[in-house]
Design a protein that fits this description.
five-stranded parallel sheet; about 20% strand; seven-stranded mixed sheet; alpha/beta; 14 helices; 22 strands; Aldehyde Dehydrogenase, Chain A, domain 1; Aldehyde Dehydrogenase, Chain A, domain 2; single chain
Length: about 500
């Protein structure tokens, strides 16, 4: 058993304990007897110190040329690359992710760093003709100020990088509040940022609880922007607070993603997508496949094959190379999944496989739940409407393509979607008619790439997109500039008419 990491806050370029002197433990979800890290339990006082440092650093960081900022971001990418295996190993132990998935999580951070390093030379504005003579017009991007980044536990490297790297290249400074369950990952990530040459105060880390640290950041008058990833309920509270104080807020929240499988689909391909989408990361992705919408002509055959493939999945610690499905993150999440199985049975759904806490050697001291398939689910059942965030997928039968689209759209969420069909007309209709921020044709609902916008509609988000060049619109303001070199007053819409 490895020695627990001693974590600290990182404020103004220094590693510090919480001012309260209190700590909490980050535990291995596959073996709750193993402490991964001792972590400072921070308070409003620690938040205040970090915000003050970030505000002071902003005065100089905003003036650093963007191409120079991008050189530091490139160094972050190099640091992530050199420590990829170490980060992935810690992530697999602390969060429970299968090691290959943890490596993919870190690789996403690497890809993100190299992408945004390039954006330092592409923070493009526009030049455009003025309607008046001897007058020049252009637009340019300006940083927002101090950004609070509040991130979840399911992607401990990728999501913080999605937020921090475009924020930095745009000239903002940061206070980073990671989820408590992945404090060791956040500490190692912060070490990489510091080693890359991010100046003191530009990137600050404050560990702690959401009600204490997250709330303090959201309400702090010197925070200009809040970027939040988490539940729709908490996101709505964050948005309300930010709205009252005129903060910019970006929300990436829940999903109830569906995969449609039509009668003409390549069933083997659709089965592979369903298994990966439903049970990858133990279903703990906002893009996980929670609903399988199956055409009645293939439902029986598809279901039989799905059960066969699911029965072969191996549960265990993410660090075990033979593991397909790791643990849930903590006891609260385990109890949440158990609760939804009770709801499913009460509503009349049939449990085809799984449906209970996993038993067996090596699983007794972890938060393991069997991969679960629910049948006889209707679109109005709670298990078809509410986010479970676990290894549970519901089967819904439909009679037509039009009904499949209607069932998919019958959700308060709209993040990711997938359609398996070999009919090109249906594929393009799906692209047009599905209410989601992401649509895959003949691919699973998971698998976002860093150079494309990520986010959703309805209760999934508030209109912003992370990743790609779209993220720059979160972390920068547009400024319009007019230069009149006529030497006289010119009144637009008046003197030229």
């Amino acid at each position: 058993m490895n020695k627990p990491l001693t974590c600290r806050n990182y404020i103004n370029g220094q590693w510090r304990s919480a001012q309260s002197g209190k700590f909490f433990e980050s535990l291995n979800p596959a073996n709750w007897g193993e402490c991964i890290a001792n972590v400072p339990l921070s308070s409003e006082a620690d938040v205040q110190a970090a915000v003050v440092a970030a505000r002071q650093a902003y005065l100089s960081w905003r003036l650093v040329p963007a191409p120079v900022r991008s050189e530091i971001i490139h160094q972050i990418g190099q640091g992530l690359s050199s420590r990829k295996e170490e980060l992935a190993s810690v992530m697999s132990r602390e969060m429970g992710k299968v090691l290959t998935e943890a490596q993919g999580d870190v690789q996403e951070g690497i890809d993100c760093a190299f992408y945004y390093a390039g954006e330092g030379r592409r923070l493009f504005g526009q030049t455009t003709p003025s309607e008046l003579s001897n007058k020049f017009a252009m637009t340019m991007r300006m940083p927002i100020g101090v950004a609070a980044l509040i991130t979840p536990w399911n992607f401990p490297v990728a999501i913080p990088c999605w937020k921090a790297l475009p924020a930095l290249v745009c000239g903002n400074t940061i206070v980073f509040k990671p989820a408590k369950d992945v404090s060791a990952c956040a500490t190692l990530l912060t070490e990489i940022f510091a080693d890359a040459g991010v100046p003191p105060g530009v990137f600050n880390l404050v560990h702690g609880s959401g009600p204490e640290v997250g709330q303090s950041l959201t309400t702090h008058p010197e925070i200009d922007l809040v970027s939040f990833t988490g539940s729709s309920q908490t996101g709505a509270e964050v948005a309300a607070i930010c709205g009252r104080s005129h903060k910019r807020v970006s929300l990436e929240m829940g999903g109830k993603n569906a995969q449609i499988v039509m009668e003409d689909a390549n069933l083997e391909l659709a089965l592979e997508g369903a298994i990966w989408g439903a049970f990858g990361t133990t279903g703990q992705r906002c893009t996980a496949t929670s609903r399988l919408i199956l055409h009645r002509d293939i439902k029986a055959d598809f279901t039989s094959k799905l059960l066969e493939k699911t029965s072969k999945l191996q549960l265990g610690a993410g660090t075990n190379p033979n593991t397909d499905v790791g643990p849930l993150i903590n006891e609260a999440q385990l109890n949440r999944v158990k609760h939804y199985l009770e709801v499913a049975r009460e509503e009349g759904a049939t449990v085809l496989t799984g449906g209970k806490v996993a038993q067996g050697s090596g699983l007794e001291q972890g938060y393991f739940f069997e991969p679960t398939i629910l049948d006889n689910v209707t679109s109005q059942m709670r298990v078809a409407q509410e986010e479970i965030f676990g290894p549970v997928v519901s089967l819904i039968e439909v009679k037509s393509f039009e009904e499949a689209i209607a069932v998919l759209n019958d959700s308060r969420y709209g993040l990711s979607s997938a359609v398996y069909t070999q009919n090109v007309n249906r594929a393009f209709q799906a692209m047009r008619d599905i209410e989601a921020g992401i649509t895959y044709i003949n691919g699973p609902t998971i698998g976002a790439e860093v150079h494309l916008p990520f986010g959703g509609v309805k209760a999934t988000g508030n209109g912003h997109r992370e990743a790609g060049s779209a993220a720059l619109d979160i972390f920068s303001d547009w400024k319009t500039v007019y230069v009149d070199f006529s030497g006289q007053l010119q009144r637009a819409q008046i003197d030229n008419r």
